[in-house]
Specification:
The protein has a single domain, classed as Diphtheria Toxin, domain 1 (Alpha-Beta Complex), CATH 3.90.175. About 35% of the residues lie in helices and about 30% in strands. A four-stranded mixed sheet has the order 2-6-5-4. A three-stranded antiparallel sheet has the order 1-3-7. Helix 4 packs antiparallel against helix 5.
Length: about 160
């Protein structure tokens, strides 16, 4: 990501009103997120539109001065973070202001369940997710109030 990047948050009209009126609440999310609690954004406006009822909030993130964990691709560390969060509820990136990483296809949740039940090994998991479709877009987890302060609201787009 560059020093300033436009990112999108997909939601529904009710949540959009709440965010607009009261600001971003880092612990209000749908749970079971890849990088733990946070306000999630994507680099892909179309993916954001597909969430909720198509309401999209656009933000510019100024990365300067933020402690950012960047996963450039699938790695043991990326896989471990997602596994720890989704299976064990262990937010291992809580010391970061922002976590950025790839988005895997929808089968990752199913694979994590199989891994958690011991029905596949971590190696099986790794092979399966790397054979899946990995998008070039990223997910961005805003994890701290400091990072929220580095977001500037941009235009809105509703379906």
């Amino acid at each position: 990501m560059s020093k300033r990047k436009t990112l999108f948050h997909g939601t529904d009209k009710k949540s959009k009103k709440q965010i607009t009126k009261h600001g971003i609440k880092l612990h209000v999310n749908r749970g079971n997120q890849d990088f733990g609690d946070g306000f999630y954004l994507t680099s892909n406006k179309g993916r954001a539109k597909a969430r909720g009822d198509g309401s999209v909030l656009a933000y510019e993130l100024n990365e300067q001065g933020l402690n950012i964990k960047m996963y450039r691709d699938i790695s043991d560390e990326w896989e471990n973070e997602i596994f720890e969060q989704r299976v064990n509820g262990n937010d291992i990136s809580k010391e970061y202001d922002v976590v950025v990483g790839p988005i895997a296809d929808a089968k990752i949740g199913y694979l994590i369940e199989l891994l958690a039940r011991g029905e596949i090994t971590r190696e099986d998991f790794r092979i399966a997710i790397t054979q899946g479709k990995i998008s070039e877009e990223v997910q961005v987890a805003i994890k701290t109030k400091k990072a929220v302060e580095h977001l500037t609201r941009k235009e809105e787009d509703e379906r």
